[in-house]
Specification:
Blueprint: H1 8-15, H2 18-45, H3 55-67, H4 76-102, H5 115-146, H6 162-192, H7 205-213, H8 218-242, H9 250-259, H10 296-304, H11 310-314, H12 316-319, H13 326-340, H14 360-364, H15 371-375, H16 383-395, H17 401-413, H18 433-436, E1 440-441, E2 450-452, H19 456-460, H20 465-477, E3 482-484, H21 494-499, H22 502-519, E4 523-526, H23 529-538, E5 545-547, H24 548-557, E6 572-575, H25 589-596, E7 602-604, H26 633-643, E8 648-651, H27 654-666, E9 674-677, H28 678-685, H29 693-697, H30 701-711
Parallel strand pairs: 1-3, 2-3, 2-4, 4-5, 6-7, 6-8, 8-9
Helix pairs in contact: 1-8, 2-8, 2-10, 3-9, 4-5, 5-6, 6-7, 6-8, 9-10, 10-13, 20-28, 24-25, 26-27
The structure holds iron/sulfur cluster (SF4) (2 copies).
One iron/sulfur cluster (SF4) binds at residues 315-317, 324, 326, 366-372, 382-383, 615.
């Protein structure tokens, strides 16, 4: 296609409409500015959010996730479509601007786009317009006929958005046709007047339209030229002003949303940005109660969601029928914003969100697994919002009945079971164990370099204590000079914080930090990914922490640790990535490397593994909360392992162990499926003999959890 340049006859056709075109430009820009200004009102009323640090990292994110569309290929068909459309839009942006300008300044050419560079750009955009047009047709057919399940809107969340989506897709298709028609008419007019013209790129939409127009009269071509321009201008501005009323607003906001995205996985936002822990008593109300309590970035998330459904498609709570679908956490808030911050009239009404747009169960149903955030191509955040909503509920005294006793026990005893502090190290003092593996209790600076942070579930749960002993044996085996805090240890507070009880978390954390500092260790090891995440991201001023799988992998690599072959060659193992080891901390390879170093061990991957691992259901104090659900997450996970051909699930987290072990029983797969912790498996394979206490305590996990309520306050 030729560059957009003056042509006597054609220009006169266009110049007839110059005043009209200028008026549409001014009206379109003014309307868009007004609409965006209105959309910004709640953002300016929102809570603060400190997102202006690390500009280079943020720019890198923009290049990777926004320009590079990094996450889109995770859904092959939809991802490819989106990449093609996005690339088309980027290429066509300058062209759209040029076309708009030609209506009021007929000789306008974008700087740098005259001559051969311009011709090359025009040819490229001919194909871009064609590809975008075809993608729109394909997307419309897909939405109307094939109807991918993840776009469906369950009745409890409102009505389907199909009509709106199809309307917007059709508008973009019309824009591509109008653009091509304008260019085709210009080229056909030039040809008919015997002027030199550059033909459109072969087989492109403008090329086909030019061929069609060349045999029509010059006046018809002139009419199409004028009409094509007007249609382009009207469609362009209508789209520009309509997008902020629906999911297409992400076209404008997504770049900013990606730039300001959360950079540190595994962390939880402070109660209020800019207010230190010491000054929290000055904060009148904790958490999010009304819409305006969300931070400005979280509101930007609401505007940026493309309603693609990927988050909910990967959410384990949604998959098992809990009343939570992350996509609708966003869509409901966005609809609230649109409704309460209208284009005309007064805005905002400060009604509580819980009980109006969200329900208690919906917010308590989240395990904070992070699958939604991992999947979202636009880096929309959920965990911080859900934790903030929980903080608001806790602040109002709205705590689920089943969680009240564990929370009281955490406050009084430092563990959710209400067991005595002095019993915290009992797991290491069982008969004969200290003979084969001496576990020191660190009560002062006694020259020990490594702290094994055990945490509550491994300390007190009869079944999980086996993980504690296995971990101690491994540390002893590699010659680590280690000890535990014993009665001085408190729950890490990881789940407490994600449950929204910030003050209790701070008390637990401060106690542990003091105890850790007092024993003067250089590093911390834990076998509990939740404790690991807390030590890495929630605690400050403590020595570096690592998960036992990382230490084992290092020992294997340096030949410090050798394994005997597996006993049963018919066993097929699969590794289940715990959310707080994998997604939140990116420890994916170390546990797998350890398994692969065991001679004779056959390992298969589940379809959902690594960053797409499926939560077992244990996070966020879920062991004490019975959500409404159609089936257990653990049961679904166990079936995934069976589908992969495995009969042994290896995990590296005591919470996963509780849920998966229980799920095997619920799914009646005992004898067909087994679960073992990585530390337990390693301690077996390094040949350190110790009676199998797991057999002794089999079946006691749930008893321990159930018993907790009765022991509270003892
Ligand atoms: S964090 Fe996990 S459970 Fe919570 S909404 Fe996201 S995917 Fe669902
Ligand atoms: S939050 Fe992200 S993944 Fe979920 S629907 Fe919106 S854009 Fe899609």
């Amino acid at each position: 296609m030729g560059a957009i340049q003056s042509n006597a006859q054609l220009s006169s056709w266009l110049s007839q409409g110059q005043v009209l075109f200028l008026f549409i430009h001014l009206l379109g820009v003014a309307c868009f500015a007004y609409i965006v200004a209105k959309r910004l009102v709640p953002i300016f009323r929102a809570a603060p959010d400190l997102r202006f640090d690390r500009p280079l990292t943020r720019l890198g994110n923009v290049l990777k996730f926004w320009l590079g569309q990094w996450k889109h290929p995770r859904y092959k068909l939809a991802g490819t479509l989106h990449i093609l459309i996005f690339a088309g839009f980027i290429l066509l942006a300058m062209r759209a601007f040029t076309v708009l300008m030609v209506g009021v300044s007929e000789n306008f050419v974008m700087p740098g786009l005259s001559g051969s560079a311009g011709h090359f750009y025009e040819a490229t955009t001919d194909y871009a317009a064609t590809v975008v047009f075809l993608c729109m047709i394909f997307a419309i057919v897909r939405r109307l006929i094939f109807k991918p399940a993840r776009y469906a809107v369950p009745a409890r969340y409102g009505k389907a958005h199909t009509a709106d989506a199809v309307f917007l897709l059709a508008l973009i298709a019309i824009l591509m046709v109008a653009d091509s028609l304008f260019e085709a008419a210009r080229a056909a007019g030039q040809a008919q007047q015997g002027q030199t013209f550059e033909f459109a790129a072969a087989l492109s939409l403008p090329w086909m339209l030019t061929n069609a127009l060349r045999s029509t009269s010059l006046s018809t071509v002139g009419g199409v030229y004028f009409g094509g321009y007007l249609l382009h201008e009207l469609t362009f501005y209508f789209l520009l002003c309509y997008r902020p009323f629906g999911i297409q607003f992400h076209v404008e906001t997504s770049l900013f949303n990606v730039y300001f995205a959360k950079l540190d996985k595994g962390t939880i936002k402070p109660v209020k940005w800019g207010v230190s822990d010491e000054h929290l008593d000055q904060v009148k109300s904790f958490g999010v109660k009304i819409f305006e309590n969300f931070t400005w970035k979280h509101m930007l998330d609401f505007y940026s969601c493309a309603d693609c459904g990927r988050c909910s498609d990967n959410c384990p709570a949604n998959a098992v029928g809990r009343p939570l679908s992350p996509r609708f956490i966003t869509i409901k808030a966005r609809d609230y914003a649109f409704q309460h911050y209208p284009m005309f009239g007064s805005s905002g009404n400060g009604k509580p969100l819980i009980g109006t747009i969200y329900s208690d169960d919906e917010i308590w149903s989240c395990t904070t697994c992070g699958a939604c955030e991992e999947e979202c191509p636009l880096l929309v955040e959920y965990i911080d919002k859900i934790v903030d909503l929980r903080r608001g509920m806790i602040d109002d005294g709205n705590v689920p009945q089943s969680l009240q006793k564990p929370l009281k026990a955490l406050e009084s005893r430092g563990n959710p079971y209400g067991k005595m502090e002095k019993k915290r190290a009992d797991w290491a003092n069982v008969k004969n164990f200290q003979d084969i593996c001496h576990v020191k209790t660190l009560d002062k600076k006694n020259g020990v370099s490594t702290l094994y942070f055990v945490d509550s579930i491994t300390s007190y749960d009869d079944r999980m204590q086996s993980i504690g002993r296995a971990t101690a044996k491994i540390l002893d085996h590699v010659g680590e000079n280690f000890g535990i805090l014993g009665a001085a240890e408190r729950d890490s507070g990881h789940e407490v914080r994600r449950f929204g009880e910030e003050t209790l978390f701070m008390a637990l954390r401060d106690h542990n930090v003091d105890a850790i500092k007092a024993c003067g260790v250089k590093r911390i090891v834990t076998a509990d990914p939740h404790a690991y995440n807390a030590l890495r991201h929630d605690y400050k001023d403590v020595p570096p922490a690592e998960h036992i799988s990382q230490l084992i992998a290092r020992a294997v690599k340096s030949d410090k640790m050798k394994f005997k072959p597996t006993e049963n060659e018919n066993d097929v193992y699969t590794y289940h990535d715990p959310c707080y080891l994998g997604r939140h901390n990116h420890v994916y390879n170390d546990p797998r490397d350890v398994l692969d170093a065991i001679p004779g061990l056959k390992r298969v991957e589940m379809q959902r593994s690594r960053a797409r691992s499926f939560c077992c259901g244990g996070g966020g104090l879920m062991l004490f909360y019975e959500p409404k659900e159609d089936q257990r997450m653990g049961v679904k996970r166990v079936r995934m392992a069976a589908d992969a051909g495995a009969n042994v699930i290896v995990t590296a987290c005591p919470f996963c162990m509780v849920n998966i072990e229980d799920a095997i029983k619920v799914a009646r797969m005992e004898g067909k499926m087994a679960v073992i912790d990585l530390a337990e498996l390693v301690s077996q394979q390094i040949g350190r003999e110790w009676p199998d206490v797991r057999a002794e305590h089999a079946g006691k996990t749930k008893e321990c959890v159930a018993a907790s309520s009765s022991e509270v306050g003892t």
